[in-house]
Amino acid sequence: MALTLYHGEPAANSLKVLLGIKEKGVPFESKLMNLHKFEQHEPWFQAINPMGQVPVLIHDGMVINESTVINEYLDEAFDGPALRPADPYGRAKMRIWTKFVDEYFCPALSFIGWHHMIKNITDKLTPEEFEEKLARIPLKEQQDKWRTSAKQGYTQEQLDNWGRQVKTSVERMEKQLARTEWLVGDQFTLADVSCYAMAYAMPTRSPQLLADKPGVTRWHKAMSEREGTKAAMAMPNPVRETLEAARAGISSTLR
Ligand SMILES: N[C@@H](CCC(=O)N[C@@H](CS)C(=O)NCC(=O)O)C(=O)O
Questions:
Q1: How far apart are the CA of 126 and the centre of ligand 1, in A?
Q2: Which atom of ligand 1 is nearest to the CA of 66?
Q3: Residue 55's domain is classified under what CATH number?
Q4: CB–CB of 90/184 below 8 Å?
Q5: In whole angstroms, how far apart are CA 209 and each of 2, 54, 87, 214?
Q6: Among 41, 53, 200, 242, which is best to mutate for testing ligand 1, by the most ligand atoms less than 8 A from CB?
């Protein structure tokens, strides 16, 4: 059995899959990509994933992208602790959470993060070098996001709106976690994995978001203490400094 995971630093969608694979306890070959060096847009990587994005799982030659799909695949294809409820209704509830993360929580956080971070990467390039990098990005939407973020071109109104969406996301989690141990009742599932991949830094970086959220605070502590989480968070982070430099800006948008 050959299992290879192309991933970035333990954050967001890469963290989601690192959490899934570590919880599952499946041995895999880690291929760490430095996203700040635009490795994900290089032709050799686009031959693996034409979207030019991580994470990507390769299982015995079969290529799977999309973090949420990868986690479900891992749970289905390998032995180990079940990460999805056994009953259809439980699975439906889990997927409502993972869909919400992919369509609402993650994009809002991501735009805020990029707004405060990308400039620190692209300022190190000449305009010509940056144009060259941009030209290789296969998705028009990602090209636009790189270009706009590089000049911090999102409006305050957009940032405020994404900030509101992040707050709404945490409130939605609190509503559930005030009543149950995990997001889908009493079983730890991929719903918890998806949400933690977005919320992992909140207690230290944006504690104001959790100030009146005892349920999320308790859940975050329980998540952080899991062996799978510790192993995923211990994966190498080649872009730590750039992420750290953006934290104050992100936190101020989330105030
Ligand atoms: N829907 C995809 C999104 C993947 C994604 O946004 N990947 C980010 C890292 S978290 C990426 O590769 N960003 C670099 C870029 O787009 O240039 C998934 O869930 O896997």
A1: 24
A2: 20
A3: 3.40.30.10
A4: yes
A5: 41, 28, 33, 11
A6: 53
144, 219: one domain: yes
Domain count, the chain: 2
For residue 203, being part of any structural domain is answered with yes
Distance 14 CA to ligand 1 centre (A): 8
Are 139 and 220 part of one and the same domain? yes
Are 108 and 67 part of one and the same domain?
A: no
Residue 16: both structure tokens together? 């989601």
pTM above 0.70, yes or no: yes
User: Does the beta carbon of 71 sit less than 6 angstroms from any atom of ligand 1?
Assistant: no
**Same domain as 233, residue 172:** yes
User: Is ligand 1 within 6 A of the CB of residue 191?
Assistant: no
Is the CB–ligand 1 distance for residue 187 below 6 Å?
no
For the Cβ of 12 lying below 6 angstroms from any atom of ligand 1, the answer is: yes
Q: Is 53 in the pocket of ligand 1 (CB under 6 A)?
A: yes
pLDDT in tens, 127-178: 999 999 999 999 999 999 999 999 999 999 999 999 999 999 999 999 999 9
Single-letter amino acid, residue 189: T
- Helices assigned H by DSSP within 101-183: 106-122, 127-135, 140-150, 156-177
Q: What pLDDT is recorded for position 155?
A: 98
Nearest CA to ligand 1 atom 13: 53
Taking the centre of ligand 1 as the mean of its atom positions, its distance from the CA of residue 54, in whole angstroms, is 5
Establish if 82 belongs to a structural domain.
no
Q: Are residues 104 and 62 in the same domain?
A: no
The verdict on residue 134 lying in a domain is yes
Q: In this model, does residue 1 exceed pLDDT 80? A: no
CA distance 189 to 203: 21
DSSP 101: I
